[in-house]
Hints:
By secondary structure, this protein is mainly beta. It has nine helices and 68 strands. Helix 5 (606-614) links the parallel strand 58 and strand 59 (622-623).
Amino acid sequence: MIKMKHLFTGLFCLIAFCTQAEQTIIVSPKGKDTNTGTLKNPLQTLQKAIDIAEKSGEAELRIHLREGTYYLPASLQITSEAFKDKSLLISGFENEKVTLSGGAKLTPEWEKVPGTSYWKAKVAETGFDQLFINHQKRILARTPNYTEDIILNGYSSDVLSPERVQRWKNPKGGFIHALHSGEWGDMHYVITGKNGDQVTYEGGFQNNRPSGMHSKYRFVENIFEELDAPGEWYLDKEQSTLYYYPCEGENIQKAQVEVALIPSLIEIIGTEKKAIKDITIRNLRFIQTTRTFMGTYEPLMRSDWRIYRGAAVFMEFAEQCAVTDCEFTDLGGNALFISKYAQGCTLSGNHIHHIGASAICIVGDTSAVRSPSFEYGQFVPYEQMDQTPGPNNNLYPRQCTVEDNLIHHIGQVEKQSAAVEIQLAAQINVRHNTMYQMPRAAINVGDGAFGGHVIEFNDAFKTVLETSDHGAFNSWGRDRFWHPSYGTMEKLTAEHPELILLDALYTTTIRNNRFRCDFGWDIDLDDGSSNYHIYNNLCLKGGIKLREGFYRTVENNILVNGALHPHVWFKQSGDVIQRNVFMRAYQPIQLHGWGKTVDYNFFNTPDNLAFAQKNGVDPHGTSGKLSFRDAAKGDFTIEEGCPVFNIGFENFPMDQFGVTSPALKALAEQPEMPKIILADASDMNKEYEWLDGKVRAVNGLGDRSAFGLPDEKGVILLTVTKGGILEAAQLQSKDVIRSINGTPVATINDLFVITDGERWRKVYRVEIFRDQKLINATIELNK
């Protein structure tokens, strides 16, 4: 009987193993959907392969795509209902290059429009807003014309001037794009018609801080009369006619023409009752989705964000799903989105570049927050507030990983975007990513709900290039305790300190990153961001800002040419600032207290230490000469013998930032390493680099006489780079800078303190002394 029992057990296991066998389905552009889906007889479409996989009795399913481009007529749906208790892998076959496109090929019959530089053709499809010629994206007719690497790729204050509008015969369907008036993101409008020399339009709902459009940073597109530059196009939908202005040397009659038609390519969707599990997307290229800036946007609590909940690859109610080793480019909107409930999902090894909006969004549902407020000025009174800690339901992502992704040139349409956007989520690990060339933050955490994130070993630079008042890492903490009135918030948190961590349940850790933000802060914890531990970070330019909030520990960081920016701190903030290397004096604004501990920090000059101690902090701080191992090559390891080690500072690795896979490392750019600026007031003749020129301090009666100054104060502009921003402001060598933005500049240290303190500005209003008289100038920073 025992032997028979073992025999039946073995047979049962064998049968169970067989029923758990794997099924592989092959797809090829050369196949047929009537085939069996084998290597010799492949299917033709991915949709047919998914249909077969849904009906399969096997538990492990693989769909391999042969090399080629697959044009999807609609987004592919992978649901928990169809894949209950099944795992699915969709990948390229071996190392073959596989592309999924949200577009279609057109075969227009072009004809030259007499007396013009453009061609036209009738088209059957009129639902597109992106055009590609020979796989290269082209520019929708716009004013001003497209210019690479400046704000909005070109802007002008007169794009809606009566003179211009009068030239437009029928501007309906055109778009207005503009920065927010405070440069906190952007907004977009569709033109609905024309009334004389004025257009009518609607929109502007994309930003959660209501505002008019910026008076200067704006452009208009999709207007026929603005079709005036090579590479531009226009679609007359009423006449089903496409117009195109070819680039130099381009034979449009022989060119391949593609257009984008759908906003999403793959949607992996479960339900509240049944999450979808074990779906993996690997080694695919995703291209050509439509732009989404006029889609449905929802507010994300009291952050500045509203969001379009969609992407090229979208996951919702998902567990242990992954997108790995893929490329995303030429997309109109977001690349990847993990929505509402998700657990244990991974996004790794991907190359995301040249897309319209955000690279990766991990965003829960607003119903997960108790007593939610949805606009900056809203607040739920204490008496009406749900004071239960933590989430209200399960509809938020948790324990997901974003690792080893190369992300650059994002936000090409939408400026309120990020390489990684996290909101209404918990315990998200963002590590070893390289991120650059973006209009706003590289990593944005939109609120404190629910914390516990680990941000580590990332490399982020060329950030906040088109907006303002932001950081390479940015966060808001407009949680239940937060109120736009400091006085109200101070009283509430003093009486009810238990409110502070109702939403920010877990400590968020920021460690071992390299951040650089030339037009903001390297790390910017804004508006109530609380419960953070920040250590072992290399900050290359913008320093660290902490606005009103609680329980932040900042220790063992190196701030190259940077400072701590404490803004509007509470008396009982609980903040700890210790064992950091600062190369600028503190930049306090409206402080009501200096935290729990601000001590044992190192300053590069005695003057900066003296400023701290004058404010009653850093009694055990020290200063001295800094010596880095090889700053020019990015190694800011501090060499032995520096007094920094007397305060307990410890060196940390300088060679572990950014992506780790060899293929992505070979593609990734590196940040520009800053030249060390030691603003030593005792060396009056030392020259410093400032913007794109060189300066030194006014030194004694000789300079006063030589420059005709009324005193011995100011900073002398020694050189002005030809074609640079100082020359554009009509500044000259031998000008003496006397004030910036209304604040006097008496010393070289003043110059750096003022510009560091207002580093989020894109414009400096400068008062200079030239030819014995004061002259006003405006320096516009070229991002």
